[in-house]
Structure formats: C-alpha cells, structure tokens
UniProtKB/TrEMBL annotation:
TM ranges: 30-47, 112-129, 141-160, 166-187, 199-216, 222-238, 250-269, 324-347, 354-371, 383-402, 414-431
Top-level taxon: Bacteria
Protein name: Tetratricopeptide (TPR) repeat protein
Species lineage: Bacteria, Pseudomonadati, Pseudomonadota, Gammaproteobacteria, Lysobacterales
Alphabetical list of Gene3D superfamilies matching this protein: Tetratricopeptide repeat domain (1.25.40.10)
The entry's keywords: Membrane, Repeat, TPR repeat, Transmembrane, Transmembrane helix
InterPro entries cross-referenced by the UniProt entry: O-mannosyl-transferase_TMTC, TPR-like_helical_dom_sf
The organism of origin for this protein: Rehaibacterium terrae
Amino acid sequence: MQSDDSPVIVTGLFFCAEKLRQGAMTKKSIGSWVFLGFALVTALLYLPGLDGPFLLDDAQNLDPVQEYVDGHRTAESVVFGNRSGPLGRPVSMASFVANAKLGLFDAYHLKLVNLLIHLACGLIAWRLMKRLMEVDGSFRNPTLAAAVLAAAWLIAPAHVSTVLYVVQRMAQLSTLFMLLAIWAFVVGRQREALSPGSGWLWLLVLSPVLTGLAAFSKENGILVPLIAGVIEIAYFRRSRERRLTPACRLYFGLFLLTPALLAAAALVLRPDYFLAGYEQRAFTLLERVLSQPRILWDYAGNLIVPHGPSMGIFHDNYPLSTGLLSPATTILAITGWALVIAIAIALRKRAPSMLAGIGIFFAGHALESSFLPLEPYFEHRNYFPSFGLLLALAALINTLITQGSPDEQNRKRLLTFVASVCAVVFSFATYSRNIVWSDFAHIMTQELRHNPTSPRMQTILAAEYMDAGRLDEALHHLRIAETYASDRDKMGISIAKALAHCAANTPIDDGLIDELLARKDAPISILALNVWERLSQRVEAGQCAAVDAGDLIAIGRSWLQSTSTPETEHGNWRVRYNLARMLASQGSLDEAAMLAHQAWESSRHNIGVGVFLFQVSASLGNMETCEEVLDILKKSKGKGDLRLDKAIETFQSAIDDWKSGRRIGARLIVPLTTSGST
C-alpha cells in the first residue's frame, strides 16, 4: 500500500468529522453525522483495494494516455480522439489526462481518484434523496433517511468492481453528473410548482448542461430526461390538477420527446447501425433481451443481499435465455418484475418513492440492458440504477414499519437494528472484496474457485502461463476454456493454442493445424481477433521461430475466405490487416499490399492501415498508391498523433525525392514500421 497517501485520506476525513463534532448534535445534524461517518468507513474499507492491478480493458482504454505521457500524442488528441463509445467520452478521458499531468498515472492513484468520485457521488445522492423524500412526505426525518440510504450505497459490496476497475471511472463520472443533473431538475421543478417561470434556468440550462457532461463521460448520461420523467410521474403528478408549466413542457419536449422520436426513427431507418455488433458476439439479440430480466434480478440480489462467489468481473459464462421457458426462471423473472412494478403503481400515492425508485432502476438500465449488442452482464452497469433500488426499498420499509408499529420508539429501535445489521454485513463484505481486489493472484484464485467455467477467466490464466513460457499449463487452461466456450469463440481458443506454442518456442503439431482449418468458417469474434493480433505480432517480430509462419498465413487466408463475418466488419478488416503484416515480414510484399489495400478500403481509411499500406507500396515502387494514401493521411495531420505527423513528413519527403529523380532502383526506401493507430 502506498502509505504516503493513506494517512492523508484518513486525516482529511477525521478533520471534517472533528469540525462537525464541534456543532450541536441536533435532529437536523444527525443525518450529516451518519453520512460523514460512513464516508470515513467507506474510505477505510477501500484502502487495501487501491493497491490492486489494472484489469481487462484498462490497458486498451489507457494506452492513448500512456502515449501522451511518452510524448507521442497531445492531450487534446487523447481527450477528443477516444473511440470507446459513440460520443467519445471526452470528460472521462480528460480526467485520466489530468492524472497523467499530475504525475499520478499509476494504478494506485487512478483508483484513489475513483474512490474520491465514489464519495462525491454518495454526497450528491444524499442531498438529492433528501429532497425527494421531502417531496414524498411520508418520511419522518428525510435528512436521516437519505443519509442512511446514501451510506448503504457507499459501502455496498456490489460497487467494489466499479470503484477498483480503473476505466469504470467513466461509469462513475457519468453517475456523478447524472445525479447533479437530476438534482437540478428537481430544484427547478419545485420552483415551477411554487411559481411558474421561476425554475427555467435550472430546467433549461443547468440540468441540460450537466446531462451533457454525464453523456460525454459515458453515454448513459442521455437517460437523465427519462429519469426526470419518472420523477415527474412519481412525485409531481400525483393529482391531475398539477399541470406542467411552460418551462416543464419545454424541458420534456426538447430533451425527452424529441430525442426519443429521433432515436426511434434512427432505429427504424438504420437498424444495422445499432445491431451490427452481434456479428462478433456469442449471443443473439433475442437471447440478450430475454436474459436481461434474470440479470436485473441478479443485480438487485447482489446489491441487497451480497453473495461474494456470485460477484466478480467474469460473467461471460452467464447462462443465457433462449426462450421464455429456457430456463424456466426467464418467465419467472419477467413475472416477478411485472409484479414489482404493479405493487409500486398501487402504492404510488402512499409511497411515491417506491414508484420513483423502481422507475429509476429500470430507466438507468434502459441503454445497457436492452437490445444493444453489449455483453449481457457487468456489475458496474448497476452503479447508478442501484440508487433507485435502495430508494424503493427504503420506501417499502418505511411504509411497512409505519403501518405495523404505531409506537414511534419501537419503530426507531427496529430501524436502528436493521440498519446496524446491514452496515456490519456490508462493511465486512466490502472489506473482504477489497482484500481480494488488492492483488491479481487473489482475484484469479477466487474466480478459479467460484467461477471455473468462465472462458475469459481461463484464457487470461492461459495468457499468464504463455508469458512465462509454460506451454502445458497454458494449454490446460485453454482446454477448459474450450469446454465452456460458445461455438463462435472456439476458433479464438484454437488460435490461442497456436499462440501458446509460439510463446513457448514449440512447434505446432498437425492436429492443431487440422483443428484450425476445421474451424475456418467461424465468425471473427472479439476473442479470436485479439489472439490473432497477438499471434501475428509475434510472427512479424520474428518471435515464432519454432512455428511455421507459412502454416499460420495459410490458416489466415482460409479463415478470411470462409468466415461469415462481412469484409467491412471491424473484425474482418483487422484480421486482414494483420495477415498483410505477417506476409510482409515473410517477404510476400505483393500479397501484403493487396490485402492491406482491401483492409484500407473496408476500414474506411483507418490511419494505421494507411501508414502500413504506404510503406509496403513504397517498397514495391507503387508511387501512385503512395500518393493516394498520403493525400488521405494528410487530412489527419495536426490532430495530435505526433508519430503520424512525423510519418507523413517522412512520406512526403520520400515522394519528393522520388519525383526529383533521386531513386534507389525503382522503389522508395521506407522502413516497414508501425505508425498511427488501428
């Protein structure tokens, strides 16, 4: 643990506690004490986990920031050049760049910032929930009730995999700004209820700006107006005479109705844009949609009743629903949610917070738990929606206790007992998860013990053994992964076996060659693409001496000819590009140039592919292609990729020399190195 920072966190929180202690312990301040106390507890619980490693796609998302640190990119290009989502997530990328600018670009400090954002989310949620509970009117002490709710959210074990998974800062920042945007909406709506026209600044300026910041942190932010609609129905439309003011109508018209209509039109006119990603997935649209009700119950269960073995980062082996009765829990899950919604509607007037909470939960999942071709299950997707679940649960408990125990003293004792038990259980579970997440070996040991059927986990273990050159152990884990992998991913497992032989400098036997050729019809899944790229990079770098590069190239040709993945799909042109680089490394420049040109066109002029195409075309003396490619590459000059800028200058100088007659044979001499990014 980086002890130089830990005392600072603890000392700061104790300083705040001491300042608060100096004030009077009043009914109003008790909520502040509760929240501050649990903020301190949360910080202490998370300290061990800050020493944990980078995980999964951390490296992929943080590589551009590392390039900035290394002087290969500008900060602006990192912030505005991200491609992890349709909106680029520049706010999140800016926060990573800020870490780097401060010299704190390591796992510990990145996770420390995540923890601070988590605490900030809890603080804003407390104030927002307090305001909502005041509108509700059924809570005796909204300040305290909201503080308890926010405290439960802060120490919930289910959020460890969000806070300590570095790139999920994107989900955290989106949640932070969503909460602020909803708070601005509620303030504006309350002002409008008192005096029409007095809340327009909150509704039409502040809330939309904060919504934009949320969406540019992660796309879930666009759901704020939908959540505002839920709050409007639950709290402000309990009686028909409460009509919308002009400012409210404009808010919902501009930011909810109009975007919803545009999104519906886009889905009808361009369904391929939204659904094309299923080509690389091991599940269908129907399977994903049918599985989500069951997954939502899992999210709810692990939030309210934490179960360590069922929580983690590997859920690629979650059993998908193939029909309403396959498995039978599918129809039960759907029926269960329908019943929950019906109860919330029935209790709308008596417990509006229950309807609001259930609505917030479903609205918060409307993007990532619907029809989009994303992986079905990730715990961090419940980070924001869990506020809704806890709000609904608080409303239900409040209603039951109020009705069941007229004696106020008994009610307080019961509430205190329930809250204390939850606090102890949550704290113990969260601390235990942080200990596990403090070390990569601990994470993998727990996953191997409780989740051995995860193909992703098994392939990651295999990769660890590959890097150590331990072929037998790597193949052992790959065979386990193969047992549980979908048919779509089995080509990827076979390529990984070839990669293991390559890493161990051991020849591939004929059986594996036959296996690879037998699976050449397989679609190019994300797993297959990733391992193929690692294999091709080793071949290109001359690190596969014991493996016949010709065999691997022949397999790549057959795969591209037989796969069902269209040529214009991301996976197809990436495989084609890497095959071209392998061919070039083996001296087959003509075929390499042909494949590179196909990948260049299919990728709609990807920069990295273009740089390679220029290089191989230059080596063949094809000046016309070089000039065409360079003209397109120049459009990206000056946009922050400093290596690309240097490559363009080198290419232009080479062409100028060629045109002026300074030739070596009939070829430009340009080394075949990578510049630019695919």
